[in-house]
Specification:
This protein is α/β, with parallel strands linked by helices. The chain has 13 helices and 8 strands. The protein has 2 domains: 179 residues, P-loop containing nucleotide triphosphate hydrolases (Rossmann fold, 3-Layer(aba) Sandwich), CATH 3.40.50.300; 175 residues, no CATH class. Strand 4, helix 3 and strand 5 form a beta-alpha-beta unit.
């Protein structure tokens, strides 16, 4: 029964495909010779042996060429992102086999750096370092120390290193009468099965973190776009002393953010969204914030420019407050029934701190500023909105 995935990664020519065949017990992966890699695309293999209840994902080797190494890293990252976006746990990476050749240690620092870049999404997944072509028993201890020291220098990644296993994937002739027999394969399979449950939990965590980062990035971009739209609307002659004129724009922004954070449309979410829009348009806090900005002393700019700052700033602050509120619901930290918490949250976003930031923007703008330039200045408000990360 297949219940997990193992990613096989490392430099070209280290023997990844030979290792895969040894674990599978049959020749499925194409094997080459020398330093050049033969795996040209990511291949997925499934064993018929019940002792190997996991898929094996063989990857393109890291080539010495910078361009080719980058291509190999990108292939793994792209595959990982597609797997995470699909939302199917059967495509998660649960254990990583990082293959290092026992007969050559020169490229090891570059290889571990490439590993960390390629598997960035799977930052919690267990790593088993496989020292391939480990023909010399006397050199194994030295090779294992080299691996441990290299990972120790990679503090962020060191915690993932679970085991170091020297292997000989296929019999290697020393001379006409002496062979180094296969070794370490059963130990590798046992170690992989042992760390698989931990790896499944780690993969779920990593996929959730990846999806949350994507949602935050989408939310930032959306709030930025609506901020520009708000500044544009505000620049036209219309009475913005009452924030009601922005209600349609804010409502569209809030609904779009709700969609990003997978807030389903129902009666509970309808009241939740309405509360945000109400707090950002006709509430006492909203009116007070507008009055405070308009009353800033020593400001000598056109009314349209001032209105552009006010409108854009309001759209930004409502967007940032909404994004945070929806994220808390998405993470299960809050529910759609927490309306009192929501009102206090939006009020805090419209506090004196916000007015002070808006005042700073007002003092930076000049008579000839365009709505686009104004929205650029307001971008700091949007950026500050996500400091809770």
């Amino acid at each position: 029964m297949v219940y997990g995935n193992v990613l096989v990664i490392g430099n070209s020519g280290v023997g990844k495909s030979t290792l895969v065949n040894a674990v599978l017990g049959e020749d499925k992966a194409v094997v080459g010779g020398g330093d050049a890699g033969v795996t040209k695309s990511i291949e997925v293999y499934v064993s018929k042996d019940p002792k190997v209840p996991f898929r094996i994902i063989d990857t393109i080797g890291f080539e010495p060429s910078l361009v080719k190494r980058h291509s190999a890293i990108k292939a793994v990252r792209d595959w990982s992102k597609r797997a995470a976006k699909d939302g199917d746990p059967d495509t998660d990476i649960n254990v990583i086999w990082f293959c290092v050749e026992g007969t050559s240690k020169k490229l090891f620092p570059e290889a571990i750096h490439a590993l960390s870049k390629a598997t960035k999404l799977w930052e919690s997944v267990p790593v088993i370092v496989v020292i391939t072509k480990s023909y010399s028993q006397t050199e194994r201890a030295e090779n294992m120390r080299t691996v441990q020291n290299a990972f120790a220098r990679q503090k962020k990644y060191a915690k993932n290193l679970k085991e170091i296993i020297p292997v000989v994937a296929e019999a290697y002739p020393i001379n006409e009468t002496t062979l180094v027999p296969p070794d370490g394969i059963d130990e590798l399979i046992d170690a992989t099965n042992r760390h698989m449950p931990e790896g499944k939990t780690a993969a779920e965590k990593d996929v959730a973190a990846f999806k949350l980062r994507r949602k935050r990035a989408m939310a930032r971009g959306l709030v930025g776009s609506f901020t520009t739209a708000g500044a544009t609307v505000g620049a036209f002659p219309m009475p913005v002393a009452d924030a009601v004129v922005l209600s349609t724009l804010e409502a569209t922004e809030v609904n779009a953010l709700a969609s990003i954070y997978e807030i389903k449309r129902n009666e509970a979410s309808k009241e939740f969204l309405s509360t945000i829009i109400e707090m950002g348009t006709v509430s006492v806090a909203a009116r007070a914030a507008i009055s405070a900005i308009k009353a800033i002393p020593g400001v000598n700019i056109a009314a349209s420019v001032l209105d552009a700052v006010i409108a854009g700033s309001f759209v930004a602050v409502i967007g940032q407050g909404s994004a945070y509120a929806f994220e808390q619901v998405y993470l299960g930290e809050r529910s759609l029934d927490d309306l009192d918490w929501l009102r206090k949250l939006i009020e805090s976003e419209l506090s004196r701190g916000f007015v002070g930031k808006a005042a700073g923007i007002v003092r930076q703008v000049s008579e000839g500023e365009t709505p686009k330039n104004v929205s650029g200045l307001i971008a700091e408000l949007v950026k500050a909105a996500f400091v809770r990360e």
